[in-house]
């Protein structure tokens, strides 16, 4: 089991603690629809990683083996690394090797993260993480499914230096695990030495802010010193408004993943020159041709006036979406835990099912009519599968599946009038809360 997968129970324990803090402190830190969207995006990201990690780690391992210019201090895979000498004492050389590796991975992450905000095609992957208008521990799990396909470029120098892929993978995972806890509004400021050296909740809140003064600041993963050294650091002076300068306004986790790529493709198609096409892909995310008004100007915003995306839907739809979100998690966890042994056909079919189920949940939270049709199709397919299972030794599972599908179809039929056409927004906008 990898470091990130092993940390999942800790993630949910800390989310529970933050929820309890919000409840007893009477602070509104979570919204159900937003949190379901966060966790859905994170689930899709993990499933996509099943298909991409082999390619990415394989490329890194090949470079480290065949194109390195020197060999890093020899260590085995974390956490079984040989940090003790053969005599049983601590081996300072290996400890130093791990520390240097961790710092170098964080340095490379700073530049990947910075470019992910400054170059549109990289932003298209990273925008997923910034698309929530909340800031809590669940948002930390809101990750891109495809952004990692480009991130490896920034870690090639580490492979050339000879850092073993096991050491790189461990340090990279620890870097991401560290970043989980800083996605919170429940912690104000830490001791001054922490604020000077490390990335903290205060620093990272700035990074997620859409306020003009907070744009493109505080890129650090673990060590905020990179921002201080390279001129991208800003202190938190007022609580930020979170989200995107052009709000996404969707709970659809599939659209969350691809919307910026679609926007880039449309801009490239409509561009009048190859220079404009180049800038739409590799320019700043805010770049626009002069005839379209030039670069986007980030407007002033405040938490008192900013309108959160919060569609008003019947409570029955919310309960349905929550129920089927919860029901989608066990098969997703099973798929992730068995990905290494499943044939590619079964793995792909399982991934398609999970993405469809979560996409339907997101559409239901917006009361979209397409979600009603897609959900009926999904349940119909499961109904057929349940009937087929009745004739096998798994008849009990088939009976349970039939019962759940039949009840869900009846539930949908009873709520069918609550689903609206895509053009009928029927939204209720709420001001940002404290």
From TrEMBL:
Record-linked Pfam families: FA_hydroxylase
Single GO term (MF): iron ion binding
Membrane topology: Multi-pass membrane protein
Compartment list: Endomembrane system
UniProt main location, coarse: membrane
One term under GO cellular component: endomembrane system
Membrane-crossing segments per the record: 6-24, 44-63, 381-414
Record InterPro entries: Fatty_acid_hydroxylase (IPR006694), Sterol_desaturase/TMEM195 (IPR051689)
Recorded superkingdom: Bacteria
Record key words, sorted: Lipid metabolism, Membrane, Oxidoreductase, Transmembrane, Transmembrane helix
Domain Fatty acid hydroxylase per the UniProt entry, residue ranges: 98-232
One record GO biological process: lipid biosynthetic process
Protein name: Fatty acid hydroxylase domain-containing protein
């Amino acid at each position: 089991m990898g470091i990130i997968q092993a940390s999942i129970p800790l993630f949910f324990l800390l989310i529970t603690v933050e929820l309890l803090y919000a409840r007893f402190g009477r602070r509104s830190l979570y919204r159900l629809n937003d949190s379901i969207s966060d966790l859905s995006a994170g689930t899709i990201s993990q499933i996509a990683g099943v298909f991409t990690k082999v390619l990415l780690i394989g490329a890194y391992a090949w470079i480290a083996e065949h194109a390195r210019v020197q060999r890093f201090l020899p260590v085995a895979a974390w956490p079984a690394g040989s940090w003790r000498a053969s005599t049983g004492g601590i081996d300072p050389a290996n400890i130093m090797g791990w520390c240097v590796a961790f710092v170098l991975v964080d340095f490379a992450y700073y530049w990947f993260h910075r470019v992910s905000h400054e170059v549109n095609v990289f932003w298209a992957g990273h925008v997923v993480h910034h698309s929530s208008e909340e800031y809590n521990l669940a948002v930390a799990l809101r990750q891109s499914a495809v952004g990692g396909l480009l991130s490896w470029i920034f870690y090639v120098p580490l492979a050339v230096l000879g850092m073993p892929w096991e050491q790189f993978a461990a340090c990279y995972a620890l870097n991401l695990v560290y970043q989980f806890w800083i996605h919170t509004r429940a912690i104000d400021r830490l001791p001054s030495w922490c604020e000077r050296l490390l990335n903290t909740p205060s620093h990272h809140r700035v990074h997620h802010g859409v306020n003009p003064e907070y744009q493109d600041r505080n890129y650090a993963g673990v060590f905020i010193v990179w921002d201080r050294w390279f001129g991208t650091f800003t202190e938190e002076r007022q609580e930020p408004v979170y989200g995107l300068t052009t709000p996404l306004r969707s709970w659809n986790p599939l659209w969350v993943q691809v919307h910026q790529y679609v926007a880039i493709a449309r801009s490239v198609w409509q561009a009048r020159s190859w220079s404009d096409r180049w800038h739409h892909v590799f320019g700043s995310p805010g770049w626009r041709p002069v005839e379209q008004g030039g670069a986007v100007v980030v407007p002033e915003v405040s938490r008192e006036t900013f309108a959160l995306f919060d569609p008003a839907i019947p409570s029955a739809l919310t309960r349905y979406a929550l129920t089927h979100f919860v029901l989608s998690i066990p098969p997703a966890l099973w798929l992730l835990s068995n990905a290494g042994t499943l044939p590619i056909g079964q793995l792909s079919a399982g991934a398609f099912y999970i993405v469809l189920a979560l996409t339907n949940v997101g559409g239901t939270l917006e009361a979209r009519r397409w979600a009603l049709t897609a959900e009926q199709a999904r349940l119909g397919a499961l109904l057929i599968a349940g009937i087929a299972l009745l004739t096998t030794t798994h008849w009990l599972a088939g009976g349970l599946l039939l019962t759940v599908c039949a009840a869900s179809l009846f539930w949908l039929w009873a709520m069918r009038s609550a689903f609206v056409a895509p053009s009928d927004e029927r939204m209720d906008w709420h001001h940002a809360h404290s």
